[in-house]
Specification:
With 169 residues, this protein is α+β, with helices and mostly antiparallel strands. It has 6 helices and 6 strands, in the order ββαββαβααααβ.
Length: 169
């Protein structure tokens, strides 16, 4: 199993009266890009939520870099380098904060932090903006951004936190 960066084996998820995933196997090699396609209700988002730790009541196994892992919370998945950008982007954003502040939100909320170097924060955000070739002002409040721009803010946040596996739902 250690040849795969990520491997899900026999993953099962049941909701009341519905078997959403029935022994699903899925694997990723380092550097690969995958697309899951299927009809609405086929279980694509459910599998992504298992891998992102937002659906903790799954059965089966998940392996990361050759070792078994438990993805029972988003924090656990993030600690292992797995992050998701969901379809409902507004749930993951602070609408009154700027795009830059949302990109670096994890830094703003660090325990024990007494002050924020706003100039440095905006400089780091500008570097992310340049890397991703974003075409909008990072001082814009997120509630004024388009859906695509909001998604890019979340992708920038995930990349800034050095995620190893980025799931786009």
């Amino acid at each position: 199993m250690d040849a795969f960066a990520l491997q899900a084996k026999a993953v099962c998820v049941e909701f009341p009266g519905v078997k959403a995933l029935d022994h699903v196997d899925f694997s990723l090699m380092p550097g690969e890009i995958h697309a899951l396609v299927g009809a609405n209700g086929a279980g694509k988002s459910t599998l992504m939520n298992v891998l992102a730790g937002t659906n903790p009541s799954y059965g089966g196994e998940v392996w990361l870099d050759g070792r078994a892992v438990e993805l029972r919370s988003p924090a656990a998945a993030k600690k292992l380098g797995i992050q998701i950008v969901c379809q409902e982007v507004d749930q993951a954003l602070a609408p009154a904060l700027s795009a830059a502040e949302n990109m670096l939100l994890d830094e703003l909320g660090r325990p024990g932090r007494l002050w924020i170097n706003w100039r440095a924060l905006y400089q780091r955000a500008e570097r992310l903006k340049d890397q991703l070739r974003l075409g909008f002002d990072l001082r814009t409040p997120v509630h004024r951004l388009t859906l695509a721009q909001k998604q890019m803010v979340l992708i920038a946040r995930a990349l800034h936190s050095r995620c190893q596996i980025l799931l786009l739902d």
